[in-house]
């Protein structure tokens, strides 16, 4: 292929931070910040710098090395290549070309909430496929295909970015072997950006590991993301209480959005492409090469089309970033709990997906935590999903409560589980009939076809005692949920006296306050780092003296001040959290 | 129609011979530009074919008979030397293929012998060339990858360890270009951990200069990543059973203890933790020299306070046990010190 070969870069970008001037922050992650900067010695060429905090990454540096090396040895017009990388204190700076239109995800969230038109989708997907084809021929996996990693330049050129670096730095369990074959068992929800929505079933399930076809799956999800403006089910936080947290609130907003978008219609060709990528069995998914030959990509538009139809009038990347900070979606109430659940969160998996080609929607099937302890009571999983999808909030709760009571109160009767399941399945079936019409018109009818693997139910009987801890956890999260709801209810009741406008005002005030606090926190952080650096240099000086009396008074003082600052920092953070919670509660009650 | 003109498939040995001819051609400077381009493209194709024989392609697994023929022909003459020399003249894709071919050949057995090892022993100067690749940004990653494959052979690793090159690694590791520095660090680690007996012999014979360099250039480097990698590797080396003599020598030095205690006080959690795994050896040593004891006693209260607060994110029984042991050892010094 002609575009594959491009001679290695001749220009060597400078390897010291002083040659760059940082202009603006344009992105943040858990342990990385992306800046827009200029490279002074190179005629002030604009670049993007991704600064990764190496001390925060638990991964061994070998995997970091493998990935940056792989990246620097790739050369393709649709792959974003690093100019160079070097360390600055504890951070790894990866200097890259600045893609001025930003990621597709950022374009969508700022200006195309309902997704792109089909010709645009076809163009960017084809470019992405070119990149994937090259990568796969080289024996590389991308592992993180999503709109947020597909970048666009001012001229409409499209590049797949963030190759590997993010995946490898945050996942400590890359396979050690010579091949790129498998992200082994536990690439789970500990991923920073919370990318589970794009993950292929076999990746989540971990039995077969990650192959090229898993990239194809993520590609399919990305297609949905571009079509609908968000990946399937992205409104669900990936947390322990996920099952419980699908509320009418979310459903409603989705519904409204869909109405606005007039239920977009998609061509048969597009639907074919997506559904072939989202085949459960990886071996039945097409390769990138085969996909490129699909009629959907035959009469593709060019980059100019993208410029005219998408890029024109778009806010700059910097503006969008600032905007997203201001309007960062307030975390769903109870989100704070996620960090504290730690391990439990990580083990949350999705057991399967139901793809509904008609409306181009994908519905995951969530197992209960029971499956996590390798108890595969799949029919029960299924029933819970149904409840969640179609049941009203209150109804779900009471039903689950019954279930819990039954199970815990009668630990000696293993059969009860099966009976129970049957019952709830029937009940779920009933709700199923009424609810969909209410929620999304009649579109969702006919999606009740669980994939074959879910149909094959094995009625294995397990000692119930093994289930109790999980059930208790479930109950706890139910309790939390109930509390939240009662909060909301009180708010709504109290709110009926307050006018809508007033509420709106309160929300705005709160948002502003949050913003202020955030800024303050940032400043404190900066100050802390400065002090830390001072401390460091003092230490070095101290080292020259003998060990036994090394710590000078200055240092002690600094240390103290530092600790104070850290404490203050922590306080601020707590305050911020409280504010956020309040904000989200009042905003939800105002809606 | 295309099939009509398809030439008879060439045998692996023929492929190697053609590759060799083109490499000789590529090595010379001559000819018109257009003709040269054509030949270089042909060379690139040949190298890719060699690669697909050795690794198999999408449809088929590699055939051991073909691999064996290829390997034999490859090492019968100086094809490896030519290939290494010509790397800078190849384009990026051909370089990557060539690197993979060289890597694979190191593991190919012919009549249950690794003939690559014999070849390299007879052409040991090739190692000098590969190592010098770290000084040329353009080719360092390709040469680096080949180098790491070559030192899988014990005799070759021994050559590099005792050569003057070993000293250069202390600088290569700290090159500003992260990719290259990290590649050099990976090779350095491989050299110091793969072949246990060779490493133990090297370390005990070269103890003085090696650890003097290691301490001053790596453990006390101003570069965070250098310190972090160095203290981790030091732990790996000293905790290896085959290096126990070297370990005893290392933990008997007052200077070494001072350096490790400074690393313990770093603000980086990762460095602290790795430093602890080395520091514990000083504390656990049952024959501590007096000056080691005196430092530990002088810093006893600080150390105990430090370990009291020293926690890691995840639960780790081994770590807790080690920590308890270290605390016990240091507290016991108190009793011995003040009768």
UniProtKB/TrEMBL annotation, chain A:
Gene3D superfamilies the record matches: Phosphorylase Kinase, domain 1, Transferase(Phosphotransferase) domain 1
Residue ranges of the region described as Disordered: 532-564
Record key words, sorted: ATP-binding, Nucleotide-binding
Top-level taxonomic group: Eukaryota
Species annotation: Tetracentron sinense (Spur-leaf)
Single annotated GO MF: protein serine/threonine kinase activator activity
Residues the record lists as binding ATP: 50
Record's protein name: Protein kinase domain-containing protein
UniProt xrefs under SMART domains: S_TKc
Boundaries of every Protein kinase domain copy: 20-297
Protein family: Belongs to the protein kinase superfamily. STE Ser/Thr protein kinase family. STE20 subfamily.
Pfam families xrefs: Pkinase
SUPFAM superfamilies, A to Z: Protein kinase-like (PK-like) (SSF56112)
TrEMBL record, chain B:
InterPro entries: ARM-like (IPR011989), ARM-type_fold (IPR016024), Mo25 (IPR013878)
Upper taxonomic lineage: Eukaryota, Viridiplantae, Streptophyta, Embryophyta, Tracheophyta
Family label: Belongs to the Mo25 family.
UniProt record, GO biological process: intracellular signal transduction
Protein name from the UniProt record: MO25-like protein At5g47540
Pfam families attached to this UniProt entry: Mo25 (PF08569)
Source species: Tetracentron sinense (Spur-leaf)
Single GO MF annotation: protein serine/threonine kinase activator activity
């Amino acid at each position: 292929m002609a575009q594959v070969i491009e001679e290695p870069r001749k220009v060597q970008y400078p390897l010291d931070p002083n040659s760059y001037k940082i202009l603006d922050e344009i992105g943040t992650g858990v342990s990385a910040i992306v800046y827009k900067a200029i490279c002074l010695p190179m005629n002030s060429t604009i670049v993007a710098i991704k600064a990764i905090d190496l001390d925060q990454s638990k991964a061994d540096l070998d995997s970091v090395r493998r990935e940056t090396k792989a990246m620097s040895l790739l050369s393709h017009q649709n792959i974003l290549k690093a100019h160079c990388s070097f360390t600055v204190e504890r951070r790894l700076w990866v200097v890259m070309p600045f893609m001025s239109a930003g990621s597709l995800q950022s374009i969508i969230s700022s200006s195309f909430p309902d997704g792109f038109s089909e010709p645009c989708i076809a163009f960017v997907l084809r470019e992405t496929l070119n990149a994937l084809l090259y990568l796969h021929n080289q024996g590389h996996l991308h592992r993180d295909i999503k709109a947020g990693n597909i970048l666009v330049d001012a001229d409409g050129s499209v590049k797949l970015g963030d190759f590997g670096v993010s995946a490898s730095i945050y996942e400590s369990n890359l396979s050690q072997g010579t091949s790129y074959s498998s992200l082994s068992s536990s690439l789970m929800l500990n991923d920073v950006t919370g990318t589970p929505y794009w993950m292929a079933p076999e990746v989540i399930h971990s039995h077969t590991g990650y192959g090229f076809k898993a990239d194809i799956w993520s590609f399919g999800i990305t297609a949905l993301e571009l079509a609908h403006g968000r990946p399937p089910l992205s409104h669900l936080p990936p947390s322990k209480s996920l099952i419980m947290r699908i509320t009418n609130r979310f459903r409603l907003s989705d519904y409204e959005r869909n109405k606005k978008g007039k239920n977009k219609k998609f061509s048969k060709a597009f639907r074919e492409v997506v559904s072939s990528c989202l085949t459960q069995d990886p071996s039945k998914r097409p390769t990138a090469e085969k996909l490129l030959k699909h009629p959907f990509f035959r009469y593709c538009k060019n980059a100019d089309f993208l410029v005219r139809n998408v890029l024109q009038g778009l806010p700059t990347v910097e503006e969008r970033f600032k905007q997203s900070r201001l309007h960062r979606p307030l975390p769903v109430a109870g989100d704070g709990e996620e960090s504290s659940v730690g391990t439990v969160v990580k083990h949350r998996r999705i057991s399967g997906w139901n793809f509904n080609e008609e409306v181009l929607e994908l519905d995951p099937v969530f197992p209960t935590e029971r499956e996590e302890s390798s108890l595969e009571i799949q029919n029960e999983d299924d029933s819970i999903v149904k409840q969640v999808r179609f049941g009203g909030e209150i109804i779900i709760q009471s039903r689950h409560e019954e279930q819990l009571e039954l199970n815990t109160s009668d630990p000696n009767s293993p059969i009860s589980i099966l009976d129970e399941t049957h019952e709830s399945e029937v009940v779920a079936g009933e709700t199923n009939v009424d609810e969909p019409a209410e929620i999304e018109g009649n579109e969702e009818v006919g999606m009740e076809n669980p994939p074959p693997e879910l149909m094959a139910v094995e009625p294995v009987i397990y000692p119930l005692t093994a289930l109790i801890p999980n059930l208790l956890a479930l109950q706890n999260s139910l309790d939390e949920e109930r509390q939240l709801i009662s909060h909301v209810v009180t708010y709504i009741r109290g709110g009926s006296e307050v006018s809508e406008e007033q509420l709106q005002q309160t929300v705005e005030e709160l948002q502003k306050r949050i913003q202020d606090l955030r800024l303050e926190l940032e400043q404190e952080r900066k100050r802390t780092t400065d002090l830390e650096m001072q401390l460091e240099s003092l230490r070095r000086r101290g080292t020259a003296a003998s060990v036994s009396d090394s710590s000078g008074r200055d240092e002690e003082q600094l240390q103290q001040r530092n600790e104070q600052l850290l404490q203050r920092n922590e306080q601020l953070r707590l305050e911020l959290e409280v504010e956020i919670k309040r904000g989200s509660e009042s905003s939800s009650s105002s809606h | 129609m295309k099939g009509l003109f398809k030439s008879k498939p060439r045998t692996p040995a023929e492929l190697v011979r053609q590759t060799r001819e083109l490499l000789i051609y590529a090595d010379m400077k001559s000819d018109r530009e257009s003709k040269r381009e054509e030949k270089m493209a042909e060379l690139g194709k040949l190298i890719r074919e060699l690669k697909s024989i050795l690794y198999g392609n999408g449809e088929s697994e590699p055939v051991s008979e073909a691999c064996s023929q290829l390997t034999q022909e490859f090492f019968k003459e100086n094809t490896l030397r030519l290939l290494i020399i010509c790397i800078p003249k190849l384009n990026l894709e051909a370089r990557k293929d060539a690197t993979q071919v060289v890597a694979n050949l190191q593991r190919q057995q012919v009549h249950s012998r690794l003939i690559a090892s014999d070849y390299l022993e007879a052409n040991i100067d090739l190692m000098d060339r590969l190592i010098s690749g770290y000084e040329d940004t353009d080719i360092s990653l390709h040469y680096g990858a080949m180098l790491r494959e070559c030192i899988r052979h014990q005799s070759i690793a021994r050559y590099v360890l005792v050569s003057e090159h070993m000293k250069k690694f202390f600088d290569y590791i700290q090159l500003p270009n992260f990719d290259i520095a990290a590649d050099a660090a990976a090779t350095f680690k491989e050299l110091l951990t793969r072949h246990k007996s060779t490493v133990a012999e090297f370390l005990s014979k070269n103890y003085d200069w090696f650890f003097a360099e290691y301490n001053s250039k790596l453990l006390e480097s101003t570069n965070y990543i250098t310190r972090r990698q160095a203290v981790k590797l030091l732990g790996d080396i000293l905790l290896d059973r085959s290096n126990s003599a070297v370990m005893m020598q290392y933990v008997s030095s007052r200077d070494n203890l001072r350096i490790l205690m400074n690393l313990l006080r770093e603000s980086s959690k990762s460095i602290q933790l790795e430093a602890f795994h080395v520091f514990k050896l000083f504390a656990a040593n049952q024959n501590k020299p007096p000056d080691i004891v005196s430092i530990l006693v002088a810093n006893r209260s600080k150390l105990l306070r430090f370990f009291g607060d020293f926690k890691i994110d995840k639960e780790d029984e081994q770590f807790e046990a080690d920590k308890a042991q270290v605390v016990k050892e240091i507290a016991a010094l108190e009793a011995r010190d003040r009768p």
